[in-house]
Amino acid sequence: GQNIDQPTEMTATEGAIVQINCTYQTSGFNGLFWYQQHAGEAPTFLSYNVLDGLEEKGRFSSFLSRSKGYSYLLLKELQMKDSASYLCAVEVLTGGGNKLTFGTGTQLKVEL
Amino acid sequence: DTEVTQTPKHLVMGMTNKKSLKCEQHMGHRAMYWYKQKAKKPPELMFVYSYEKLSINESVPSRFSPECPNSSLLNLHLHALQPEDSALYLCASSQDLADNEQFFGPGTRLTVL
To answer: Which residues of chain B are within 8 Å of residue A91 when distances are taken between CB atoms?
Structure first.
């Protein structure tokens, strides 16, 4: 099976930088996704890492270390609209194809 | 069109009812997914269809019956549900099973009385 851990909640200040960590233990690992989900809405794709290293996309960056089973999502220049749940999702290879298993999510609150 | 649509947005049903959830995408994606999400929990995979064939069934009870009538449509037929089945049901699609960037629909909020 898979074991995916993220902090439950984080609070940060508008304009600041926040790092959300995700650790995982799984077999058949193929890659790691980060999704953003606002309350009552569908998850939206933020990033995908398959190789070790940092992927940067605007204010959002994501890092992966396959050997350590570790990823983080870095959000810069925080805005109030960034208040949401951030879901780490591990992609695993199965006989039926690739599938995603989501972590429990980190609820980020951005304050003034 | 880069959207996944789902109908209805909300559904209330009794335990003896039969209802269906519908999902549609016109992005040419060949993989489609059903997830169940309880409040303050992550989405949990239920079914995966690839090229209109059931590829993954995550040991979902038979009271949930998926159907993929064509490459753009995915249905979830519901029968004899339990109150604990109340949740947000999310549909998603991706280019194919090898491309796991999934686009999610807005979900159907289901309440079973």
So the answer is: 100
